[in-house]
Amino acid sequence: MSHSEPALDLERAALLVIDMQCGAFDGRLCPPMPDGDALLSACRSALDWARRQRVPVFWIQHSEPGGPMDGPGFDIDPRLNPAAEEPRFTKTVPDAFEETSLAQALQQAGRSQPILIGLQSDCCIEATARGALAQGLKPWLVPDAHHTWPDQGLSAEALRDQVSQALAQAGVPLIPLSTLYTVTHKQSHSA
């Protein structure tokens, strides 16, 4: 990382796991997430890293009556194994900071660098990243740990990459999983 790039400070970081709910993967009310197993694996890796580094994890769940994330689709996918002590926030709009207490919870925990993973790249991931910027936070995005469905004639991968680049241009640093794994408390203090 060059000196001009921002440094991730693990004492200020928090992992936001966004909308990784059963309804995105079960095929009940919408097509299952493309490459869902790969996304779940990437998110599990980010979770393992966060827990090892004692970076707090915050779970975001979308609630939309009658939609894929309703009823049994509301539950966090059990393959991610959320811990009971990790707080959960329910949202009804794409931005996880709107109409929730997420900003206050991050502030109370002394966490100003949320790291975003999950769904849906071109909706809730993008809106939450922009919402974090509007809150005066310094969000980070793991480009290989968020995903979406194909739309607007673009593949899911193309949309995901487009969102990652748009957020990078808006001031959200990208930190791939391979780089995230190398960040430890010792390294974040010496940066």
UniProtKB/TrEMBL annotation:
<dbReference type="InterPro" id="IPR000868">
    <property type="entry name" value="Isochorismatase-like_dom"/>
</dbReference>
<dbReference type="InterPro" id="IPR036380">
    <property type="entry name" value="Isochorismatase-like_sf"/>
</dbReference>
<protein>
    <recommendedName>
        <fullName>Isochorismatase-like domain-containing protein</fullName>
    </recommendedName>
</protein>
<keyword id="KW-0378">Hydrolase</keyword>
<dbReference type="GO" id="GO:0016787">
    <property type="term" value="F:hydrolase activity"/>
</dbReference>
<dbReference type="InterPro" id="IPR050272">
    <property type="entry name" value="Isochorismatase-like_hydrls"/>
</dbReference>
<feature type="domain" description="Isochorismatase-like">
    <location>
        <begin position="13"/>
        <end position="158"/>
    </location>
</feature>
<dbReference type="Pfam" id="PF00857">
    <property type="entry name" value="Isochorismatase"/>
</dbReference>
